[in-house]
């Protein structure tokens, strides 16, 4: 499961860098919050979860690990889309529906990840990488 997380993280890394270059080239800095979330939640957090699940594969293949994967990877694109939609005049109300649904799924995924770590990550289960 860890490899899937890492591959998705790399996609978010590419998107984050491309967005940063776009912002710099066009001086459209109002996208900064979305850019930060793509890089931190998309790239960094996703990669860290992937590394945890690579080192502790039992956690990654557990039911909590699978639920975390799907909630996180459905919720995150929805949340990120809402961060772009709030910049569209008149779309803020619609965007907030996406913010709460995507953000809620993402928050639940992170809670499940934390529970999974405490339940299934033990020194004795560590995979040598």
Low-confidence stretches: none
Number of separate helices: 5
Report on the biggest sheet.
none
Q: N-to-C terminal Cα separation, in Å?
A: 15 Å
Spell out the helices and strands N to C: HHHHH
Domain count, please report it.
1
Summarize the amount of helix as a percent range. over 70%
Q: What is the rounded Rg?
A: 16 Å
Strand residue percentage: under 5%
The overall strand count is 0
Mean pLDDT: 90
Sum up the overall morphology in one term: flat
The secondary-structure class comes to mainly alpha
Describe this structure in words.
- This protein is mainly α and 129 residues long.
- It has one domain.
- The protein is 82% helix and 0% strand.
- The protein has 5 helices and no strands.
- It has helices at 2-26, 32-55, 57-61, 63-85, 92-120.
- Helix 1 (2-26) runs antiparallel to helix 2 (32-55), helix 2 (32-55) runs antiparallel to helix 4 and helix 4 (63-85) packs antiparallel against helix 5 (92-120).
- It is flat, with a radius of gyration of 16 Å.
- The relative contact order is 0.15.
Secondary structure elements and pairings:
Blueprint (H helix, E strand, L loop, with lengths): L1 H25 L5 H24 L1 H5 L1 H23 L6 H29 L9
Helix pairs in contact: 1-2, 2-4, 4-5
Output the keywords:
single chain, 129 residues, mainly alpha, flat
């Amino acid at each position: 499961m860890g490899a899937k997380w890492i591959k998705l993280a790399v996609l978010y890394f590419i998107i984050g860098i491309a967005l940063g270059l776009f912002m710099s080239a066009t001086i459209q800095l109002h996208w900064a919050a979305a850019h930060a979330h793509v890089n931190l939640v998309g790239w960094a957090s996703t990669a860290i979860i992937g590394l945890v699940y690579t080192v502790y594969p039992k956690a990654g293949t557990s039911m909590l690990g699978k639920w975390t994967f799907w909630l996180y990877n459905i919720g995150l694109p929805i949340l990120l889309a809402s961060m772009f939609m709030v910049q569209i005049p008149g779309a803020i109300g619609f965007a907030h529906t996406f913010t709460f649904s995507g953000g809620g799924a993402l928050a639940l995924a992170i809670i499940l990840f934390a529970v999974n770590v405490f339940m299934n990550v033990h020194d004795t289960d560590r995979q040598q990488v």
